[in-house]
Amino acid sequence: DQRYPEGFIPAPEQDCSRYKQAGYWQERNLGQWLSHWASQYGSNTALTDQQHRLSYQQLDHQASRLAAGLYQAGIRQGDKVLVQLPNCASFVILTFALFRIGAWPIMAMPAHREKDIVALCQQAEPVAYVLPDRFLGYDYHSLADQARASCSSLKHIIVDGETDTWLSLSDFDHEPLPAETLSQPQYTDVALLLLSGGTTGTPKLIPRTHADYAYNAIASAELCGLSEQSVYLAALPVGHNFPLACPGILGTLSAGGNVVMARTPGSDETFPLIESEKVTVTALVPPLAQLWLSAREWDDSDLSSLKLLQIGGSRLDPEVARQITPVLGCKLQQVFGMAEGLLCYTRLDDPEEVVINTQGRPLSSHDQVRVVNSAGHPVQAGETGELQTKGPYTIHGYYKADSHNATTFTADGFYQSGDLVRMTPEGNIVVEGRIKEQINRAGEKIAVAEVEQLLNEHPDIESCVLVPVPDERLGERSCAFIITSGAEFYLHHLQYYLSDKGLPRYKQPDQLEQVSHWPLTTVGKIDKQRLIRQALQSDAQQT
Ligand code: J2J
């Protein structure tokens, strides 16, 4: 009988047995999976970045060395480690080292700044924080200082790179220790904490177990036809569920393929990499896919190795979808996923119209999906409603978030996604919109409440509303409407103020509109649709 850590809600016992019996949950933790893959694919290239080219054996060995070093430093099973690394080999080595100890990586993004980092530290109480020295012109040392000052649980700040102040990741290199010493986690234990896009002021943590995450990655790799010949380009930030495990890094390793790290997802870096590394598969969000399409007008890199482009994270315009194969010469796969679990994929042999117009269907035959109206009752076939889901790799609760969980999960254990979808007669899902208070800016999720709270704290702002505005480049941009006490405001003032509060750039408003009163709906709520129209008009007048 297993004891679960505080704040983690496991699947009900009967469901666990079903997932085990069906062979979805296998009795291996992710650290053991890597050893298994190393024994199968030993000398194949596993991982490539700007400085490294590691075989499966080397990756396995390096992960063991780092696990030993972290263990020697006192990091133990169930300890949390905040990981904020850009796409590089050390991210993968570190992640597997932590899997082996049973410590839980918290997957922060390089774009995060003080506000998220401090909130994560306070919520999860990590014992260590691993970060780069610099990335894309930003010096992370001040983030380390702030985390240290606000979080008494932090015993180690570890820099991947140059540092005079803190320890460096290379200081944790150590002779491997026997697996038994490193308190091997159970396959049903928590493996990692992913970040949720969220709808509230504080980030929510998504606990994924070894068994569910391994299944997520391995089943995705099979669905996408990955093999030893596959070369996966990690272009999106690797702490995100999509490039990490859908099938991403973990799925590619399960199939014996090669993972290639791109530091940034733009065509200037990725096209030459696709050519030189003969990349066969990668994943993008729609705005990046659009950039790649336009780059093709002047960049004639040889992309002929590319067989499959996965696109997900936000709505893909069918007109853009239609151009993928003619312009980039590869198959398109739409992915409707969520870090909370459920993954929908179009299949590689689906008819073209399905791939262009739908977001596919669930990965697993044990995924349960229902579409409900606002009263929580199933809608008629083909009608739009909220998607609720439960299954072998979908969580039953966020980590340490009891009150939020009470409103986000149904009594029978379904996750209420906040997405509005409809089901086609063939069983494919089409995402029609959402009811959650979130802005999807180029696939990056912004909790409206978080930004509004900060704006309301500004002494000259009397009230404010943040709305998503359709945007050609980003899919959606955020526009802040404010009522002030008379002061005149400019967007850059607001952005400066929010940066100072530690809000990352992507969560800061892209547009600002000052109004004197709120337009109201007939029931007296603020008319957000009208604000969105006003934002569009005002922008059109300026350009
Ligand atoms: C419309 N909205 C989508 C799509 C996600 C693969 C792909 C994406 C994510 C992801 C992921 C969408 N069309 N194709 O984790 O493994 C919106 C929905 C969803 C939310 C989840 C993966 N694909 N979305 O985007 O946790 O609103 O995961 O609920 O970041 O993104 O966001 P996130």
UniProtKB/TrEMBL annotation:
Molecular function per GO: isochorismate synthase activity; ligase activity, forming carbon-sulfur bonds; oxo-acid-lyase activity
Residues covered by the AMP-dependent synthetase/ligase domain: 35-399
Endpoints of the signal sequence: none
This protein's UniProt keywords: Ligase
Domain AMP-binding enzyme C-terminal: from-to ranges: 450-525
Record pathway: Siderophore biosynthesis
Protein name: Salicylate synthase
Natural source organism: Oceanospirillum sediminis
Taxonomic path: Bacteria, Pseudomonadati, Pseudomonadota, Gammaproteobacteria, Oceanospirillales
Portion of the parent chain present: 3 to 545 of 1049
